[in-house]
Amino acid sequence: MAPDRPPVAAPLRPRALSGIQPTAGSFHLGNYLGAIRQYVALQETHDAFYMVVDLHAITVPQDPAELRANTRLAAAQLLAAGLDPERCTLFIQSHVPEHAQLGWVMNCLTGFGEASRMTQFKDKSAKQGADRATVGLFTYPVLQVADILLYQADAVPVGEDQRQHIELTRDLAERFNTRFGDTFTIPAPHIVKEVAKIYDLQDPAIKMSKSASTPKGLINLLDEPKTTAKKVKSAVTDTDTVIRFDPVDKPGVSNLLTIYSTLTGKAIADLEKEYEGRMYGALKTDLAEVMVEFVTPFRTRTQEYLDDPGTLDSILAKGAEKARAVAAETLATTFDRMGFLPAKH
Ligand code: AQP
């Protein structure tokens, strides 16, 4: 039977946990709408832990100076997006060594075939060339399993592309609990259907992604607002003229309506009415304005955090301390359950 709340002291609220990679300078609109907005919302209802997953970032070749700068930039963007260190725990993954330690345990519990079925590894290794892919990239989902289980998370806010990894997390947690006794909470993905997959503005058949073949369809939140407006105005639509939400026949227009609706809080049905009889150009012009209104203060707030490294460091230090307290307790129980001899100090 799945444990409700095994050995770690029960928090008053359910736990949420998620992470984001510092692999590109700027977060993109898919990251924001698919995941970060949910991080912000869950602060209100959950005991929420969010991290910048720098250990995951080295699964592809990285430049040390860039990784350092991007890690700070990622933390600054999370704060700018609305994470409040008084209401959630924000930290850097490598500041909590228990992630790598539990990651090893989880590696030893994962079948090779099971890991080989992860579609994200297949996609990413295909993009890089299979012989250049590292073992770290292969075991990335298993480290993610450890990230989640360390915090006994109930909910994991992510985009649709992460669903398979959360399934793996559930399988491994159940496997561990069956073999060694109830230890881990079985987490559930928190995926908001409407924004689970934001599509590339130039190719609405593929998800918006930092590794897209052309940057034209990718909205980076830290781009110059005029660049963002231009990208929205040149978004691919279709040869029809009707503004209607129909992801199968009108994927480009539907993607724009989803973005518009999420950023403004207007229902899609209301937007369809508002734009009845109007041209695609009108929708794009208005959405470009909405985007500019959104990214402009976001850029300013991000810069303010970057300009105050003392405050940023102190937020991250406090976050790591809080995260470690939880992670260390889970790891100690895990090691004990597995039969590791406790160290005598
Ligand atoms: N297009 C998207 N729509 C909705 N959610 C998305 N996410 C990413 N793209 C979309 C979600 O953002 C969170 C952080 O993801 P990450 O740190 O794993 O970043 P990523 O997946 O590396 O972002 P990319 O751009 O998708 O990178 P590549 O091109 O390397 O694959 C996750 O919750 C993710 O679901």
Automatic annotation (TrEMBL):
Main subcellular localisation: cytoplasm
Binding sites annotated in the UniProt record for ATP: 21-23, 30-31, 159-161, 198, 207-211
Pfam families associated with the record: tRNA-synt_1b
Keywords for the protein's UniProt record, in alphabetical order: Aminoacyl-tRNA synthetase, ATP-binding, Cytoplasm, Ligase, Nucleotide-binding, Protein biosynthesis
Motif annotated as 'KMSKS' region, chain positions: 207-211
GO molecular function ontology, one term from the record: tryptophan-tRNA ligase activity
Its EC number(s): 6.1.1.2
CDD domains with a match to the protein in the record: TrpRS_core
Binding site for L-tryptophan: 147
First-level EC class: ligase
Record's GO cellular component terms: cytosol
Subcellular location: Cytoplasm
Taxonomic superkingdom: Bacteria
SUPFAM superfamilies: Nucleotidylyl transferase (SSF52374)
GO biological process terms on file: tryptophanyl-tRNA aminoacylation
Presence of keyword Oxidoreductase: no
Annotated catalysed reactions: tRNA(Trp) + L-tryptophan + ATP = L-tryptophyl-tRNA(Trp) + AMP + diphosphate + H(+)
SUBUNIT field: Homodimer.
Function: Catalyzes the attachment of tryptophan to tRNA(Trp).
Family that this chain belongs to: Belongs to the class-I aminoacyl-tRNA synthetase family.
HAMAP family: Trp_tRNA_synth_B (MF_00140_B)
Protein name, entry field: Tryptophan--tRNA ligase
